[in-house]
Amino acid sequence: MGQLKEEDENPMSDELLLSADEIRDAAKRLGETLAAYQSSLTERPVFPTLDRNFIRRILDEPLPENGKPWTELFDEFHNEIVPNSTQIAHPRYLAYVLASPHGLSPFADALVAALNQGCSLWELSPVANAVELKVLSWFRELFGMPQEGTGYLTSGGSMANLTALAAARDWALGGRARAEGLQGDRPPLVLYTSEEVHTSVNKAACLLGLGSNCVRSIPTDDAFRIRVDLLKSAIEQDRQAGLLPFCIVGSAGTVTTGAIDPIATLAELCKQEDLWLHIDGAYGAFAVLTERLAPAMREAGLAHSLALDPHKLLFNSLEAGCVLFRNSDSARNTFGFASSYLAKSEDPDLVNFSEYGPELSRNFKALKVWWALRAFGRAAYADTIDRLLDLSQYMAAKIEPEPVLELAAPVTLTAVCFRVHALDDAQQDRLLRRFVDSGVGHLGPARIADRTWLRACMTNLRTRKQDIDQVLETIVCLAEDFD
Ligand SMILES: Cc1ncc(COP(=O)(O)O)c(C=O)c1O
C-alpha cells in the first residue's frame, strides 16, 4: 500500500466523501463483516425467520433530513441485514441457479465502485475496456468462436438473450430494420425454441415486438431436448403458410433439468434454412471447462450468438452476464447509434461497447470475472464444476433407491428434480414451503411432464455430500409426517 498517497494537506470537505482514515476504517469493517459472515454462515437458517419489526422500520422510515454516523450502518448490516437475508452462500442453499460468489467478488465490486468507469466509451474506461475485451476473447476461445466476433457483458442471462435476439431480428429484417422496425410490409417473423426454454426468451420475443404467437415452443424428447423432427415440420409448415422463420433458440442447459439441445444439428439446420442460431448457455455453457461436458458445450460456439452467465457457473456475484456474437457487424447494425453529445473516437485496440448492446451506463463488471479467472485459474474452475457435477450425480443416486422419493429426469448438469411419491402437486408445493421455512435448506419448484417437482441445483461452492444427505433426510422426514 506504500504507493497510496496520504491526502490530508487538503482535507476533504465534501459531506458525501470519506476521509482517508475513514476509508481505512470502512475497509477494516468491510473485512470484518465479510469474515464474520463467512464463519457464521452454517449456523444461520438458510431462509430467515424475518424480523417484521425491522422490515416495518425500513418501510416506514421517513427520508432523513440529517445523516447519522455511517459506522452504524455497518453494525446494522451485521446485526439486522444479514440475519434477515436469504443465505445464498449457505452450503444448503440449492434453489434456482444462483451461485455462491467466489471470494474475490466483494473486493472487486468495491473497487469497481471506487473507479466508477463508464464502460460504454473506451475513453471513459480505457483499461476496463481492455479487460472486458480480454474476458470476451477468452470466452470466445472456450467455445471456438471466431476471434473477429464481438461480445458484451450484460447484467445477466435475460439481458444477454434480449440483446442477442434484437440483433437476430434486425439481421432478418435486413437493411430496412432501423427505419421500419416491424412496421414494414413483410410476413411475420417466427422464432423456434423448445418447451423447456427459459422464459427470458419468450419475454425477449414479446419485448422485441414479435409477439408470443410467433414463438413456436417445440416439444422435447424423453431427455427434455428439442425434437428436431417436430422443429423441421414446424418450419416447413410456417413457410408454406407464408410466414418468415428467422431464428432457432437452443439451450446449452435448460433451466429446469439442465438438458442440452442437439446444438450441432440445430446449427446445420440453421445453415440449410438460412436462420439465425442463438444458444442460451446462461445456466450450463461454462461446463465447457470440464472434460466430460466440453464436447457438447463447445458446439455452442457454432451459434450466431451465445448467452452466458458468469454469475452462475463462474461464481461471480450478481450481476455478470454475457452475450457473444459471431459477427460484430450484426451487433453494430442494431446497437450502433451516432449522437452529437458522445465523443465516440476510434482506437486501434479498444472499442465503444455502447455499439454492441442496449445500455449506455455500464460498470466495470469485467473486473471480478477477470480477477477470478487469473487468481484461481482454469484448472480450479474445471475442478469446481466437476465436483458439482459429481455432487449432482451423488444426489440422484441417493434419490433413486429411496422408496419415498422419485427422480424426474436424467441428471446432465447440476439440476436434480425429484418429488415425494405419495403426494399430489399441491402437497408437493406445501412440502417445499415447509422445507424452506424449516431453514435447513432451500430448494426451488419445477414443473415437468405436467407435474410439480422439487428442484436442487448445485451451483454452490460450499455444498458437500453431508449437506445433500441432510436436505434429503429432512424432505423424507417432512414427507413421513405430512398432513
Ligand atoms: C437457461 C437460463 N437462461 C436464462 C436465465 C436468465 O438469467 P438471469 O437470471 O441471469 O437473467 C436463466 C436463469 O436461471 C437460465 O437458467
Structure description:
The chain is an alpha/beta fold. The protein has a domain at 110-372: Type I PLP-dependent aspartate aminotransferase-like (Major domain) (Aspartate Aminotransferase, domain 2, 3-Layer(aba) Sandwich). It has 15 helices and eleven strands. The chain has helices spanning 20-40, 52-60, 71-81, 105-115, 126-143, 157-173, 177-180, 199-207, 228-240, 263-273, 294-298, 328-335, 366-399, 425-438, 465-480; strands at 150-154, 189-194, 215-218, 244-251, 276-280, 305-308, 321-325, 405-407, 415-420, 444-448, 451-457. The protein has a seven-stranded mixed beta sheet, sandwiched between helices. Helix 1 (20-40) runs parallel beside helix 3 and helix 4 runs antiparallel to helix 13 (366-399). The radius of gyration is 24 Å and the shape is globular. Mean pLDDT is 95; it is low at 1-5. The structure holds pyridoxal-5'-phosphate (PLP). Pyridoxal-5'-phosphate binds next to helix 6. Pyridoxal-5'-phosphate (PLP) binds next to helix 6.
